[in-house]
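Summary for the funding panel

The consortium committed to producing paired sequence-structure records for every protein in the target list. Below we show the first two records in order, beginning with the earlier of the two.
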Amino acid sequence: IMDEQATLMPLAVGALLIELFLLLRQMLDILTPLVTAAVSILWTFGLMGWLGIPINVVTSTIPILLIVVGSTEDIHLLAEFRHAQRCGDAKPAALRHMARRMGRTVLLTFVTTYAGFLSVGLSGIEVLRQFGLVASTGLLFNFIVTIIFIPAALSLTGHWQLDGRSRLFEERMAKWAERYWRFIDRHRRRAFVLLTACAVLAAFGIPRIQINHNPTDSLGETSPVAQQIARLNEQFAGLESFSVVIESGIQDTFLHARYLHELVKVQNFIQAMDASLSATSFADYLALLNGAFLESENAGVPRSNDEIAELMIFLDHDRVSGYANEDYSQVRIQVRHNIATTDALRKTLGKIRAFIDENLDPGLSARITGDSTLALSATDSMIAGQLQSVLMILTLFVLIVSFLFTDLRVGLLAALPNIFPIIILFGVMGYAGIPLNIGTTMAAAIAMGIAVDDTLHFMLRYNQELRTSKSQALAMQKTIYEEALPVVSTSVALTVGFLVFAQSDFTPVAQFGLLSALVISTALVADFVITPLAMSLLRLVTLWDLLSSRLRHQIIPRSPLFRGMRPWQIRKFVLSSTLLEFNAGDYVYRKDDDSNALYLVMKGVVEITLPRGEPESRDPIVDQFGSGQIFGDVALLANEARKTNAVALTNTTLMVLSREAIANVTFFHPFIASRLFLNLARDVSKRWVTFIGRVRTPRGDLREEDDKP
């Protein structure tokens, strides 16, 4: 194990250094993940020594995991800091930008990754429990070091240096993000069909997955130990065993010929099943003594109770204590075998169980136990535990996202790009003949705990961009542009790091590395295809935005738009919209513009005028709208071009509800939509009544100056 770590550790460090150099190109950024990983590894080994947890084939992988997995959040933080510097922020401002934009995201992604490793520790297998405890605690150490060391290091030495990425590169990246989003948005149906077909094809491979309980297989075919074990299995009956225990609960039961022959019947059936099975029991000793007395090799077991009683005079119990208890009410058949596969062993035990149930005397009971059956039970428990871990992580992720965005459907939708890699994982295992073992069962839980990180980064970034963008398409383009480098960087680092495990001599560890790399690379594809397409279906609102908004105290009492709505409906509606700022004199819209949104005045005053087309004459004033009032809704609902001009009289903040947002509200929240349209109808009706009254006045303007809408 130590020799292997001496080989794999430099590979992991070297691969990470190369990847960081190619993607970040800053000496500080390259060394920072190694420093945080080194400190967390030191603390983790100290914890293992304090708790008395040994270094074994599973726990020996923890240092490399801390280097690989621990570097992901470092990359995200450093990338955000450098992005702020590239945009012109000074070092203090860049640090504040990094903390504001990445603080909650890093915390949440740590929680999901921590849960992924901790879930392994919930297994009933001691070695997995130790691994889960130590690995999750090591990640906690890494998180603590990261959030302390990186801001401190950047504040002292985070000066901007040439990183080899020109402004031309940035412009090309922005154009690529725009073209990419337009492409997948235009072909979203084909993308969903293709990904669904891949998932269905992989799902057909899942039933082919085999289970492997044999620890010898973890050594690999070329291992000297495995080769010696194979020779022993060929020359002897086998190194593995199980036992069939038969009992009656009555003293001297198996000193009676009738019940002794029941024991022989079961033993003969086992030996007749497979020539490689070697079954030994208390009856063999009696047969040997009986043959010696009768001077016959084929004498067999005694046929009467008297013969058994005579032979027992010469048979001391100490010689058969491994096959019968002291009062001979319980006997054991020991079966040695060299069955290598779990399925074959399970079938063998099933046949024996079926024969016993059908043919054993009703006065006797039997059970199958021993090392092999315990290994099977442990394997089943391990697999069930890891599958439960996958479900637990997925459920935790859905709950976190639903809590953040106050909508369960958002959480369920966000689970799609994380379910897809797991389906591909199990499908590949089935088609490639990779069994479920101690290594491969960890891959699903751990890799999912890591894969959801990028999904969270993507979703939270999209929500932030949505707050300042005029359209969902533009917000998605900015999200892809901003997240492309850090998400690709972390995914490449994880994939390369996990591929280092493929060099291990221990087959489960090598398979764990290959499968984890597969999950991470598949999750990268899902993050840039499934996640954008799924998120574009909804307007996402975070709970932090809900709690930090002071505007609800100004809008709710005044606006007719919210009449009859419950507080949570108002919050969802308000913060699913976009806020735009206008300076005094700015046009909100002009005549003949497309009517693609309605507006709610949050602050300021907007004047609506009817353009006459005469440069020297003053356009008639139709109306003025202050805080809490709605305008622009008539043309929107009629789907007609604008007939008037709207201009901000003072510095004004408007909440914009686009046609697309209204369609989403109608589809996903029909009850809110019904109240929305009722309130709009009431407001439009009242304004029409007021407007008709103004038209009948002899004044030149269409509006009395002292009228209030």
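The next record, for a separate protein in the list, is shown here:
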Amino acid sequence: MPNSSSISQFLLLAFSDTWQLQLLHFWLFLGISLAALLGNGLIISAVACDHHLHTPMHFFLLNLSLTDLGSICTTVPKAMHNSLWDTRTISYAGCAAQVFLLIFCLSTEVALLTIMCYDRYVAICKPLHYGT
């Protein structure tokens, strides 16, 4: 009979062992994520509602805000949960999902920023070829 064991969770390192600092981390995460959600929500609603902002630059800015929301909503809620409830574990499936979604959102942001740079390059250096 072989001796085997399986581990189904990762252990997370805590930011702090004291309850007051964990609450401080929770409130900081909450405040920063709400500010980012509010800012991205304003950009999304402004671009979606105003037909004058339906230009390529604003289209890419809208998509950049959406991917930024995705990357924020991927990592911050678990960090807030860990700070508030003093949990120090994450399942393999949860960790894999977080890593996949974060890499997907960040690579999408890099691609969008690259496309936005090329869009601005064409608009500035070759204005006659740029359709608005």
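Regarding this second record: Strands lie at 9-11, 89-91. The chain has a mean pLDDT of 87.
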